[in-house]
Amino acid sequence: MARIVIAGSSDQSRTQLSALLSSSGYPVYRLCAGAGELRRTLNDCDDGLLILAGQIPDCSADELFWDYGEQVHILLIAKPPELEGCESQGIFRLALPTSRQAVLGAVEMLTQLHRMKLPKHTVDERALIGKAKEILMRREGLTEPQAHRALQQYAMNRGLRMADCALQIVKGDGNKHDS
Question: What structural domains and CATH numbers belong to the chain?
Answer without folding.
Answer: 4-116 (3.40.50.2300), 123-178 (1.10.10.10)
